[in-house]
Amino acid sequence: MIVFSAFICDLDVFFSKYAKDNNHRNLITHSIIPSIIVIVLGITFNWPALILSGFTLFLHIFVDLFDWGTNLFYFSKKTIGPRLFISNEEQKNLPKYLAQYKNKESFFDFKYYNNKLALMIEALLFVLMMICIIIYAFEYTLIIFIYFFGLYFHLSKHFHLKKLEKS
Ligand SMILES: [Zn+2]
Fold it and tell me: Would you state the pLDDT for residue 43?
């Protein structure tokens, strides 16, 4: 449950069409609100696993702040975070940059896969994850299949976009 709550909020990509700019990170699910609710519920019912789930949920939102940012305080409708992948210049003229691509998503996708540091961190975290699982939760090793499923989803999208932009 703790692991599930760390990525459950990304399932909101399926509701992207309801979000501002079609960005799932602008949805309430990528704000700080659900983590607070889950932690409060965990404390109310004195349920440690639920409290931890609230923290992993928050951790996810926290990490998301660093790449593209999220709508952290939902009601302010502002994307917040260091947003390391996007410069102020690009942010201001975003429509111009997006127009260079056949599919708007390509801009974000290529920025990520052309960033060697991001890929290195990804690989490093993967190794760290494997070590942690083997040491602390060997009986849950099968959980890494969820990771590979997500990896497959992202890579197939990447290659799809690559093909599309070349054509
Ligand atoms: Zn996310």
Answer: 94
